[in-house]
Design goal:
single chain; 323 residues; alpha/beta; Quinone Oxidoreductase, Chain A, domain 1; Rossmann fold; seven-stranded mixed sheet; five-stranded parallel sheet; 10 helices; binds zinc ion
């Protein structure tokens, strides 16, 4: 059996091509992709590469689809079931896994990075990495579970409490979801965004001048934003390093006395654990976090080049791809 897929063989180039669908291992399932989310990480991965990328590769780490075939030892899932794919495969035994941080597993295999992902008609995943989508939840809403999961991981690491204020730098898809998830957790989000168009989409969040926040999250790859966020923490404030930085901006002047005298802390956040996928699907299915109005483009996989340009130029909010 064959399928069409986007293949990256060298950094900076990709092609829509036909590839064979390999046989399933006994613990895997074959999923017919319904929709794949496109994010800035895909843009980075295709254009300039990524620390975790191995080639050749079919990208795509935000995937929802229908199970079409089960491996010999899979008993907990059924054919025809709509599932969200947690993009990681983890060992379950290493120090990170034992802490419930399988995203930091020393043997982590990320779909779209180390394993083939969802820019294709089909994707293969281990049964233990898939989560059934709640009854009645549409695929194009369920696919937000991946970016929302990464936001839930960040808010968990920030130890966000009810009634606390959250300053969020960047109002792209991640910044918007961080705000909505904060609100669902009964905290008060504020958006710091220089792009007027995006500030309007993220409406509901007040913009703020010299405010200080209990939690500061930087969801834009800007050293300037980190510098501002460092200066905008309340006493006992927490700064979440959510967005990676280009190597040229990776070092910031930082006075440790500020953290000492104000009991502030800085915490990193990268990806998400399996349990965040379960939480995210629940928040979307119940409407606690609205996502539908964030869909700005629905495009065919064959239009990936144009879709990447939309993400690159920050023209849209969320771009969804259909095989
Ligand atoms: Zn592990």
């Amino acid at each position: 059996m064959e399928m069409s897929a986007i293949m990256v063989r060298d950094i900076g180039a990709f092609e829509l091509t036909t590839v064979p669908i390999r046989d399933l291992e006994s613990d895997e399932v074959l999923i017919e992709v319904e929709v794949t989310g496109l994010c800035r990480t895909d843009l980075k991965l295709i254009r300039v590469g990524h620390r975790d990328l191995t080639l050749p590769r079919i990208p795509g780490e935000e995937v929802v689809g229908i199970i079409r075939k089960l491996g010999g030892n899979v008993t907990a899932l059924q054919e025809g079931c709509r599932v969200y794919v947690y993009p990681g495969v983890w060992c379950g035994r290493c120090p990170a896994c034992r802490k419930g941080a399988e995203n930091l597993c020393r043997g982590m295999q990320i779909m779209g990075f180390h394993r083939d992902g969802g820019f294709a008609e089909y994707v293969i995943a281990p049964a233990k990495s898939v989560i059934p989508v709640p009854e009645g939840l549409r695929a194009e809403l369920a696919v937000f579970a991946e970016p929302l999961s990464c936001c839930l991981n960040a808010l968990e690491l920030a130890r966000l409490g009810k009634g606390e204020t959250v300053g969020i730098w960047g109002a792209g898809p991640a910044g918007t979801l961080l705000g909505r998830a904060s609100r669902a957790m009964e905290a008060e989000p504020f958006s710091i965004e220089l792009d007027r168009r995006r500030r309007e989409i993220a409406k509901g969040s007040a913009s703020c001048g010299n405010m200080k926040f209990d939690v500061c999250i930087v969801a834009v790859g800007s050293g300037q934003a980190y510098q501002e966020a460092l200066g905008a923490m309340n006493p006992r404030g927490r700064l979440v390093v959510f967005s990676g930085l280009h190597a040229s901006e990776d070092e910031l002047p930082l006075g440790l006395n500020q953290l000492h005298y104000h009991e502030q802390s800085i915490v990193g956040a990268y990806g998400c654990s399996f349990r965040h996928g379960v939480q995210a699907l629940h928040l979307i299915a119940t409407g606690a976090v609205a996502v539908e109005d964030m869909i700005s483009h629905r495009m065919a996989l064959s239009d990936l080049d144009q879709a990447l340009r939309i993400v690159e130029n920050r023209q849209g909010m969320k771009v969804l791809l259909y095989p």
